[in-house]
Design brief:
Oligomer: single chain
Helix content: 25-40%
Number of strands: 13
Radius of gyration: 20 Å
Number of domains: 2
Length: 394
């Protein structure tokens, strides 16, 4: 199988062709936005990371910015900083430059004023846009595709329709030599023994249990029993009764391939296959993390519930350079499919089998990878991105 992608100097092709402005700290969000706003087609990626974060959280944020800058969907990157931040724009630009794509940086301190930084930044991204517009799509093997996957609005129907159809897509992509990343560590709790049996090696199984155990202990250290907080009220309204039931259902979206490894947040995989990335269930955090891991496209498998019926949700936390394909198996939303890309409720209704929907879904994924816009890409709504942090603010 092939898709039509944008070739990059190093690594896999992109399925989109963006020039972006990334601030290394939230204090320079305005600078990044102003630079991007003055050049048609340039995208600012604004976030909440502050210098008040401590060592491990700063390192995680730096890894996120570098990974995002290297994402194949990005053709050129400008890092726009203040000059006094902990994470330096110059250092980020140097690391991302290893990808072979155009990378520049500006800071207010170096340029002497906000306006001078804007002027220099806009000149840089205009030049990047000129180069990006000269890149044409060409046939690329499916082995170059990395898919990120998340679920939401979990319900009793999730594991019957949307999740198994999603799993079919992941199995197909991995079978062709591609990569898939799932996340939400809390939704592995209670099903970790099932996933451990799918580990490619005993070391991977041990790593999985260690990361899931670490996450549960972090919650316990706050004096909270996650089994009292999950499933959520919305999940309960949709028929789920325990965290274990929710986690076992969530496993269906990962397909049947062996678990190749377990990643830290924003850590790129080093080989093809199926991976778990450690993260919370917070949409903007985990989607940003998977984008930093290199995912060019993401799947949001929606079970049901009220959030699924909002126009912006549940993909509102998406990274603006990574398209999100939304699938739902809830017959209630059948008349609201303008918000979704794939309807899987036909499995429940009995008119299609999982394989039928899976093949239809795979066709849609190839079309999206080749340039077709997802329903979410038509929305102008965008949340501030949130970087996963575990420590205090000081």
């Amino acid at each position: 199988m092939e898709f039509m992608g944008y070739p990059r100097p190093i690594g896999p092709a992109g399925i989109r062709n963006y020039v972006v402005v990334i601030p290394p700290v939230r204090c320079s969000n305005e600078l990044a936005w102003t630079i991007a706003d003055g050049v048609n087609g340039v995208v600012p990626i604004m976030h909440n990371h502050a210098c008040a974060r401590l060592g491990p959280d700063n390192e995680r944020a730096k890894k996120t910015f570098v990974g995002l800058g290297k994402n194949p969907n990005i053709a050129g990157v400008l890092f726009a900083g203040i000059g006094c931040e902990n994470i330096k724009a110059e250092e980020l630009a140097e690391e991302v430059a290893a990808s072979g794509k155009p990378v520049e940086f500006v800071t207010i301190e170096k340029e002497g004023s906000f306006q001078a930084a804007v002027d220099k930044g806009q000149a840089a991204v205009r030049a990047m846009m000129a180069k990006a517009c000269q890149i044409s799509r060409e046939p690329r093997p499916l082995s170059e595709l990395t898919i990120g996957v998340k679920c939401g609005g979990s319900a009793t129907i999730s594991s019957l329709a949307g999740h198994p159809a999603t799993g079919y897509v992941l199995d197909t992509v991995i079978g062709e030599g591609g990569t898939a990343i799932f996340t939400e560590t809390a939704e592995v709790i209670g099903a970790e023994h099932v996933m451990a049996r799918r580990a490619a090696t005993p070391e991977v199984a041990e790593r999985l249990l260690q990361v899931v155990g670490r996450f549960e202990k972090m919650i316990e250290d706050y004096g909270v029993d996650i089994r009292g907080a999950q499933p959520s009220p919305g999940n309960i309204k949709s028929g789920l009764s325990t965290l274990e039931e929710k986690s076992l259902g969530a496993m269906h979206k990962t397909g049947h391939m062996p678990l190749a490894g377990v990643l830290e947040y924003a850590e790129p995989p080093t080989a093809p296959g199926l991976y778990l990335m450690d993260s919370t269930a917070w949409t903007s955090q985990l989607m940003l993390g998977m984008a930093a891991c290199g995912s060019q496209v993401q799947i949001f498998s929606v079970g049901g519930g009220l959030p699924a019926r909002s126009r912006s949700q549940p993909g509102m936390g998406r990274v603006p350079v990574v398209p999100v394909v939304k699938i739902s198996g809830d017959p209630v939303v059948r008349n609201e499919m303008e918000y979704f890309d794939i309807y899987a409720g036909t499995i429940i209704e009995g008119s299609e089998e999982v394989e039928d929907v899976g093949k239809r879904f795979m066709t849609e994924m190839l079309e999206v990878a080749s340039g077709k816009l997802t329903k979410q890409e038509y929305s102008r709504f965008q949340e501030m991105l949130d970087i996963y942090a575990t420590g205090p603010l000081v």
